[in-house]
Amino acid sequence: MLETIWFLLWGVLWAIYFILDGYDLGIGTLLPFLGKSDTDRRIMLNSMGPFWDGNEVWLITAGGVTFAAFPKAYAVMFSGLYTPLMLLLFALIIRGVSLEFRHQVDSPAWRRVWDWGATIGSFLPALLLGVAFANIFMGLPLDEKGVFQGNLLTLLNPYGLAGGVLFVLLFAMHGALWLTIKSEGDLQRRAANLARKLWPVLVVLIGAFVVLTVIYTNLLANYLTNPLLLVLLVAPVLALLLLRQQIGKEDWWFAWGLSAAMITGLTLFGVVGLYPALLPSSINPDYSITIANAASSTLTLSIMLGVALVFVPIVAAYQFWLYRTFSHKVTEKELGHDGAY
Amino acid sequence: MDVLMLSRLQFAMATMFHFIFVPLTLGLSILVAIMETKYVRTGDEMYKRMTKFWGKLFVINFVLGVVTGITLEFQFGTNWSRYSEYVGDIFGSLLAIEATVAFFLESTFLGAWIFGWNVLSPKMHALCIWLVAGASNLSALWILIANGFMQNPLGYVIRNGRAELADFFAVVGNPFAWQQYVHVLSGAFALAGFFVMGVSSWHLLKKQNVDFFTRSFKLGMVFGLVFSVLVAVQGHHHAQEVTKIQPAKLAAMESLWETHEDGAPMYLLVVPDEKNEKNAVELFGIPGGLSFLAHNDFKAPVQGLKDWPADERPPVMLTFLSFRAMVGLGTLMPLLCIWAFLRRNKLTETPKLLKAMLFAIPVPYLAIEAGWVVAEVGRQPWIVNGLMKTADAVSPIVTSQVAFSLVALTLLYALLGAVDIYLLFKFAKKGPAEA
């Protein structure tokens, strides 16, 4: 029971990370496409300025919870996916310093360097996380000892790459919508247009990904043992459809919320479809890392649950406060203030 | 080189690089919070300028501490997966708690502080930096409790082929961890004091913004004095704890080869000769000196390295030299602070002191890095003292992967470290904004 609760919390933590840092990564990716001038790019970076660091901690927590609740899954996942995770790490490091360093020196060449840092450092994590999760859905080549029998190229299969592209575009949409909330004028218009253009692409891509999921993974078979759970797909599909309507109405907060619901729904759909495995083995299902063979002791899981029940609502409350406090649009005047990127 | 050696090098590099930035974050956050509180209380614009000037340096330093911290969490899984699997039940939960209770707080309120100058009320803004300071130091506590488990494992039971949690309060209350925490924290606070004194000295030597930097200097001096004395005094107690719990580490720190049943001497000049299991040079001995330092008793027995088989001894030369470096630099620090204290009202008339304090900025950095080498290298060959060897902890991965990541990470860190230090210099030299 505790294992199942932690399995779900594990999925929820990833979903929260994707919702929150997803738009940061999306905006970073879109920087060269939407940021025509230095001012545009500064508005884009400042739109996530107060938030990105707190958002990234959800990733640290998702990693930490994997370590704490399912140590074996953490060990197998991080050592098996060594190179992609190192690339993810380098990218996140570069993203973080690019945001902080860019505005420190007033020189176009300096800023161009960190613009590229922000873009690559945002695009690459989106891509890598997509590739990693698609491969997990598909199953990793894990032997009986949980040792990964493959390399980086093993992961770059068609389904893995489709997952990567899907994440990049989901986050790009999410970022464009965040930007419509936080900007005004021409930049806002361009972000809105991009969201409009991305929508049909996402519809096709999500449709294709679901079909590929049926072909490449055992998720469907898993769902068919408990078909009621397929309702989980209703939420993201509904959110996707309503999203077009809200983009049309230019209700940007609502649209962003729908995009968040879509990301959450897709993440949970994937994660629940894995249950009870965390990392299925493509070599032999018996070698899979599951909640049964990877979970921590009951004592640890109980203590951690206590900590989570007390502190996660507190974190949510003060992060909500942060978002409320900085919900205003980033204007040019704002850029003149101390601390602005 | 094999995966084990490369992983050791990578972990050492990543940890030591991370710890260039962390101590200043821990100490300077508090100093900036004090400055801003004074501003809110008195309305004195000088304190607002101080908050902004030192706060800018704080933020530039902070970012590298944060981004390099992720590497450490990742590395336990990527490079030390057998360790992660074996002790994750305990160690993993401590890292997860650290993120949940401290790291969120730190990151969220730092964002609010940086961007909140024109949005938040002055009181709320000052509260933000206090929350950042408190959370940073709370975060360090959980990390040191995790490290404390590696130094002195408590509260576990071996079950299902791994170490499982048996007593959470034993893990959290680990006296060794708390000793380390006080030691690391006081070292970090002293470092921040030296940083503030050193940067202030540069400006005072040039006689620019004299009032501003005299006030800053004095604030740094209080911190530097109090905590460099504390770190030395408490370090002595910590070493006595090491004697009890990790006697092989103590023997390596002192390069003591033979066991002395009735009092071990302390030599002021020693050159270890690891190959021949003796010291090539041993001069200026104080009879019973080491026994006294370790046990407060000149006649107390102290174990020598030969009590352990060769493969259960830490590398002697590195541990020994790092310990001497830490103690030497750690002795210099309170002396410099006392000098500064005596001349506190004649700073600009004492250029020698100002020059010394400027060049002393690296001193606490070197002392802290050396201290970590003693703590971690001195624990070898164990990753968890007496429970698991480092050689058994490494991941089943391919050498080329680690070689690639080690080279890439080193280059990336070197580059970012250089940029960060360039920015710190740039803004430290630029001085505060005009009043």
Number of strands of chain A: 2
Catalogue the unreliable spans of chain B: none
Query: For the residues shown, what is the average pLDDT of chain B?
Result: 94
The main pleated sheet of chain B reads as: 2 strands, antiparallel
Judged by helices, strands and strand pairing, the structural class of chain B is mainly alpha
Helix share of residues of chain B? over 70%
Quick one: overall form of chain B? globular
How would you classify the quaternary structure?
A: heterodimer
Could you give the count of β-strands of chain B?
6
The N- and C-terminal alpha carbons of chain A lie at a distance of 46 Å
Across the major sheet of chain B, the strand order is 1-2
Rg on CA atoms of chain B, Å: 23 Å
Number of helices of chain B: 13
What is the terminal separation of chain B in angstroms? 57 Å
Strand order of the largest sheet of chain A: 1-2
Question: What descriptive keywords fit this protein?
Answer:
heterodimer, A: 341 residues, mainly alpha, two-stranded antiparallel ribbon, B: 435 residues, two-stranded antiparallel sheet, 6 strands, 71% helix, 7% strand, globular
Question: Concise description?
Answer:
In chain A, 78% of the residues lie in helices and 1% in strands. Chain A is an all-alpha fold and 341 residues long.
Topology:
The complex is a heterodimer of chains A (341) and B (435).
Chain A: H1 2-34, H2 38-48, H3 52-69, H4 71-80, H5 82-101, H6 108-138, H7 152-155, H8 158-182, H9 185-216, H10 219-224, H11 234-249, H12 252-274, E1 277-279, E2 289-290, H13 291-294, H14 298-325, H15 332-335
Antiparallel strand pairs in A: 1-2
Chain B: H1 3-42, H2 45-78, H3 81-115, H4 122-151, E1 156-159, E2 162-165, H5 168-172, H6 175-205, H7 210-245, H8 247-254, E3 266-273, E4 278-286, H9 289-295, H10 316-342, H11 351-359, H12 362-377, E5 382-384, E6 388-389, H13 399-430
Antiparallel strand pairs in B: 1-2, 3-4, 5-6
